[in-house]
Amino acid sequence: MKKxxxxxxxxxxxxxxxACGSESSSEDKDSAKADDNASxxxxxxxxxxxxxxxxxxxxxxxxxxxxxxxxIANKKKDMNKLVENGPMKLTITGxxxxxxxPSDNYKELFDNKDKLTIITIGMKVENTSEETVxxxxxxxxxxxxxGDQVEAELILSADIGGDFFxxxxxxxEVIFTLDTPAKDISEIKLIINGASNENLDSLGEDxxxxxxx
Length: 213
Known about the structure:
Shape: globular
Number of helices: 2
Structural class: alpha+beta
Strand content: 35-45%
Radius of gyration: 20 Å
Low-confidence stretches: 17-29
Oligomer: single chain
Order of helices and strands: HHEEEEEEEEEEEEE
């Protein structure tokens, strides 16, 4: 089972985790080639390259593994959307929706479904205080514009919640599974219980965070 969960995480998160590096590399190359006296023709070429890159990013991407085929429907990278909750800082780094078609050997683990939707939310969490704070974004509830309401898949998600002992940080992805086709999901909302201290006193209001692809 441990092998399955590791494969699942690699399958779902690979494109999210590797996306940022390729963009910065491309920008560095363009910068190195840039000249203060660049001609209009060079500028047009740059515009054409940027257009081609955007078109490539918008196309459906597919990842295949032992578990099955994952087809990326929508994703947003480098979002860096910050939410403060008492002494806690929650940053949404990216979101992704995809369709998973499990292979025959793994269908039983997905209630024998031929396909399902996987939504991945990249998060960074930080306690800015010296106190112990409890905060559980990995136990979030997700709703969609299609009427879904699902809980985070704890066993598939990164362990980015719990007790934060003083000024500490955690980072990872929170995963949700649902039946609505990925292409039908354009708006989502994260609902997360507010932070609390060791005495279970509330340090922040519950979070309702709308996000769109």
